[in-house]
Amino acid sequence: MLSNENIRILAVEDEAGLLKLVVAYLEQEGFAVKGAVTGREALQTFKDWQPHLLVLDRMLPDISGEEVCRQIRRESDIPILMLTAKAGEDHLVEGLSLGADDYVTKPFSPKEVMARVRALLRRSRADRLPQAEEFRFDGDRLVIRVARQEVLKAGEPISLTTAEFRILVTLARRPGIAYTRAQLIDKAMGEDFDGYDRTIDVHIKNLRQKLEDKPKQPRYIVTVFGTGYKFGVES
């Protein structure tokens, strides 16, 4: 397990004072931190430094936070905590749809950011998951390798966020068993998660887009009306 001083965090915020505050709090926790004030600087720093976690402002002066998130998600599944001044559930759910794992709305307490960062890091560490598990479904068409945090569909790797992966593993461990949204939040997101139940729906939608041949007629992740979701294919 990495100690805090070995964990690299990139904080992206165009308000210099706010960036300085976030960086200071992260450094007080012992993390190695770099800051960026533009989207272009963030993407270059990400490429050169390969951080373990990204704190990303949604509103940036050049490339939007949404586009930064999209580009990073094409090549990495690192946890992304999005900072947004846009209030309302729809805006927050939209941020998760872009590939963010969690969000904090402005104005926020730096302590809240630290709590979310710690929670994301705990969920992303592979050593919190059983190391030998491998699930095969659909005549080996879908393979989930827990230790590697790897998912293959028809032999091709599928890129999932940390939250998506943990939700998928939770469901795949017990095919046919229905989970409520609250149970999925507890088992996959952690008891310290503080967000909307609807965030689970967004992650499920993203999983279906990536895993299902027909996302609107899912076979793997099935809705159980009045309850939540279950994994619908036996191994």
TrEMBL record:
In this protein, which residues make up the domain named Response regulatory? 8-121
Superkingdom classification of source: Bacteria
Domain OmpR/PhoB-type residue range list:
132-233
A single BP term in Gene Ontology: regulation of DNA-templated transcription
The UniProt entry, under PROSITE patterns, shows:
OMPR_PHOB (PS51755), RESPONSE_REGULATORY (PS50110)
Residues recorded as bearing 4-aspartylphosphate in the entry: 57
* Keyword Signal listed: no
An annotated Gene Ontology molecular function: transcription cis-regulatory region binding
The family database entries (Pfam families) matched by this protein are listed as: Response_reg, Trans_reg_C
User: Gene Ontology terms, cellular component aspect?
Assistant: cytosol; protein-DNA complex
- DNA-binding annotation, residue ranges on this chain: 132-233
Alphabetically ordered keywords of this record:
DNA-binding, Phosphoprotein, Transcription, Transcription regulation, Two-component regulatory system
CDD domains (alphabetical)? REC_OmpR (cd17574), trans_reg_C (cd00383)
What role is this protein assigned?
Answer: May play the central regulatory role in sporulation. It may be an element of the effector pathway responsible for the activation of sporulation genes in response to nutritional stress. Spo0A may act in concert with spo0H (a sigma factor) to control the expression of some genes that are critical to the sporulation process.
Q: What is this protein called?
A: Stage 0 sporulation protein A homolog
